[in-house]
Write a structure and sequence with these properties.
3 domains; 206 residues; 6-stranded antiparallel sheet
Amino acid sequence: MTDIKDKQRETLKCDSMVSEHSSKNKKILFTTSFTVLVIGFLVLVYLPVIFQEGNPWPQIKGITQLTFGGADMAKLSGSDNMYLTKSRGGSIAVDAFMKGRGYEFSEQMGSGYFFKSSDKTIVLTKRQYSRFYTIWTVIENKINLINELELRECLSKSNMASHEKCIELLKQIVDYNSCVKAGFSIMKSNPPQCATPDGRTFIQEN
């Protein structure tokens, strides 16, 4: 009689363990399925933003450095002159970065931020990467910068000589990159567009 009761207890204990194990498996399966659905939904919603720069891996690495590495400004892999900051406080991070290189902020024109040292001017242009991050491009081409400064100066004047000079300088703007380098406004569109004062619009090509 005792043996029968022991067997019954063992059977009940075994059934309980099987039931508990099955319940845990169901919870794990539900959690995994829910996580996959949420990630899939987010990817679907933010797909245009994720791939707005083409291959998103450099931006993902940059976001990881900003979020977990304690960095204020992350250099994008595969590029010599592109950096990522958080949108909030991004200009402060850029200012500190440029001061470390011996440059002081001079002025802002459109999306272009001008920094000067004793003998050189550098422009940083920015564009949004989602609401939370900003991509900065460092432009160090000295010849182009001279033309950009001349263009900015002639646009502020109304005499005929300045007008003619502006026309000649505007002819040098032939694509999206040269439009951005000149400091003209970038439209919040997908893909981004840059407009010149003479009515031309250039679309960024990935």
